[in-house]
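Suppose a colleague, Dr. K., hands you the sequence of a protein chain of 262 amino acids and asks what its three-dimensional shape might be. Before reaching for any lab equipment, you can write down a predicted structure in token form. Begin with the sequence itself:
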Amino acid sequence: MKMVSSEGKMNALKSISAADQKLTSSASRSSANNVISIDQSILKVDPYAKDALDMIGSRTKSTPVNFSVHYDTKWGENLFVLGSHKKLGAWDEAKAIPMHYKEGGQWSCEVELQPGGIFFYKYLVRSIFGTRWQEGANNLLVLPEANDLPKNATYLVEDCFNGGPTQLTRTNQTLLAAKLIETQKEKVLYAKELSKQQQMTKSALEELLIAREELAAAQMQLARAIGDGRSYDVDTTTTTATNNDTSSKEEEEKKSGFWSSR
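The predicted structure, expressed as tokens, is then:
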């Protein structure tokens, strides 16, 4: 029967336990420090695609936007709004959004659009004679982010049909510039964060390799503790034979009269 030194076994087991804990800790940190998550869907978008602008803004929220424009129509004329986003018809005249007439030559309609989105649009006049587009450059609408919009509020867009600049045009220009600048800032922050995460991952991998080496060394130490001089053999067969020889000798001494109590 082989007996193992308790001290040697305990030391080896302690070394294995410490290495295992370090190994687990390194693996946990490596998993927790993954590179910052970026919306995968935006990475697949072709920036030159026709519907690329649709990807800008919230994907889960929407806010009502009221388009309003003054236009003195003639008999049989109706106004529509048409824009770059699919909810604004995606520049397809057949999908233009009809507007409703109010007293004083005011036309309006309401469309649900995503906060933080960027939209280009124009007004159309339809009659039995055909369709006439609003002159001038496309109108620009930049909606604030969801957190910057009052709850249950409607965003009001007031335009001039003649295409002249309005306060909203200047506001949209400012919002667009701010969004582009914020995007550039985010890119810089992402780059810094990525560099930091890569360095942390490198450190975690180095610790992982060290922990594995320590674990291997502890396992070897345990193996030596089992087989080296700290263990010893107890030969029960030899002990039993020796006891039997002693008993036989005592019996012979008794018969010869030479035995005495010890």
